[in-house]
Design goal:
9% of the residues lie in helices and 39% in strands. It has helices at 2-18, 163-168, 342-350, 380-383; strands at residues 42-46, 61-65, 68-76, 79-80, 83-85, 91-94, 103-111, 117-124, 130-132, 134-138, 145-146, 152-156, 170-174, 180-184, 189-194, 202-208, 214-216, 219-221, 225-231, 235-240, 245-250, 253-261, 273-278, 281-283, 286-289, 302-305, 308-310, 317-320, 338-340, 357-361, 365-366. Keywords: Acyltransferase, Cell shape, Cell wall biogenesis/degradation, Peptidoglycan synthesis, Signal, Transferase. It comes from Microbispora corallina. Residues 1-23 form the signal peptide.
Length: 391
């Protein structure tokens, strides 16, 4: 009997010490087992490290599994690339194109229950065969003030193939915003015109976000461009060739009334064009020669005129004409220009800005929309159809 009791005690002791499959901490939940390992965050970066000749329009993507991204930095030449996280902070995506011919460094940090993690990558972008840039912006003269009719004319150094992509990168910021649209005149020239004249007295900033933009086969934008434009007072001159008068208003107030003489109208080239003109340039003096004629031909002339302000490409100016003062206010005797008394022509010349409005009425010849800066001759609804983004 005592021996049996000992055996029972030993069995009981063994049962108490061995534990069962349901004991806390064991692989089945017993108290004394190891906890399962928590995986650390895994960060993936695209483009992969070491990748060369990456397209500038390629998107940089950084993702994290088993955790969330805390920080992502993508930079080249000291400039960081803008990007954004998704709602869960498990993905970061770049927002703008990359620089061509650049070496990029990517660094990322993530955190999770398994601890922090870091990753980095280096890649380089391709050098485009065709490098797109802005060759000229008009107006673009430093310190210049322009009129309320002034368009923004952008000339590129390459024939743009993907006009929609480039136009998407063109931005116009105005202190007093109004609707406007781009129109492509040819593969290198795009012009921005507002639906109505610019509100006077403001600054307008033009920005071409071209860097990295894929503009066609083997063509990428290589640099951004910005220009600030000063819009001055609303100078609007109204010319009536039938009453032979010109009225100049500044911000709606009449500041000058001038007797004028317009084109005599005996031929098409001697007929002043009716429509909305813009002042383009000036000269003092300007030598004017009869179009399509050489010396000795009937009707040939060569005259030197003072204080001349150009309003079209077909040879029309507002200028001084002391020889026709007797006809000004009475008859049209010019070769197509708007003539004025010398002192008043000088006044107009001195107050001229590129892009001021000159409205002419009373003749049978209509100003063509592409004659000089006659862009206001085209209805805005039609103008917009020249946009690569217009559906």
């Amino acid at each position: 009997m005592p021996i049996a009791g000992v055996a029972v005690a030993m069995v009981a002791a063994l049962s108490a010490c061995s534990g069962g499959s349901d004991a806390p901490g064991s692989p089945g939940g017993g108290a004394g087992g190891d906890k399962p390992a928590v995986p650390t965050p895994v960060i993936k970066i695209s483009p992969a490290s070491g990748t060369a000749k990456v397209r500038p329009d390629k998107t940089v993507v950084v993702t994290a599994s088993n955790g969330s991204l805390q920080e992502v930095t993508v930079e080249a030449d000291g400039e960081q690339v803008e990007g954004e996280f998704d709602a869960a902070h498990t993905k970061w995506t770049s927002k703008k194109p990359l620089k061509p011919s650049a070496k990029y460094t990517v660094s990322a940090k993530a955190s999770g229950d398994g601890g922090p993690a870091t990753a980095s990558s280096r890649f380089s972008t391709l050098t485009p065969k065709l490098k797109l840039a802005v060759a000229d912006v008009t107006p673009g003269l430093k310190g210049e003030t322009v009129g309320v009719g002034m368009p923004i004319m952008v000339t590129f150094n390459q024939n743009v193939q993907d006009k929609a992509a480039v136009e998407q990168a063109l931005e116009v910021q105005a202190e007093k915003p109004v609707p406007g649209a781009w129109r492509w005149i040819n593969d290198k020239l795009a012009i921005y015109r507002t639906a109505k004249y610019w509100p006077a007295h403001q600054k307008v900033k033009f920005v071409a976000h071209l860097e990295g933009v894929h503009a066609g086969r083997d063509m990428y934008g290589v640099e951004d461009h910005s220009t600030t434009i000063n819009i001055g007072a609303a100078w609007v001159s109204s010319v009536n060739t039938k009453t032979h008068m010109m009225v100049v208003k500044r911000d709606g107030k009449t500041v000058q009334t001038m007797k004028i003489s317009a084109g005599k109208g005996t031929t098409r080239e001697y007929t002043t064009t009716s429509g909305v003109h813009l002042t383009m340039e000036r000269g003092n003096p300007v030598t004017m020669i009869s179009p399509g004629k050489k010396e000795g031909d009937p009707g040939y002339y060569k005259e030197v005129v003072n204080h001349a302000v150009r309003i079209s490409n077909s040879g029309e100016y507002v200028h001084s004409a002391p020889w026709s003062v007797g006809s000004q206010g009475i008859a049209n005797v010019s070769h197509g220009c708007v003539n004025a008394r010398p002192d008043q022509a000088k006044w107009f010349y001195d107050h001229f800005h590129r892009g001021d409005v000159v409205k002419i009425v009373g003749t049978s010849r209509i100003l063509e929309w592409n004659n000089g800066w006659g862009f206001w001759q085209m209805p805005y609804k039609q103008w917009k159809k020249g946009s690569a983004l217009e559906s």
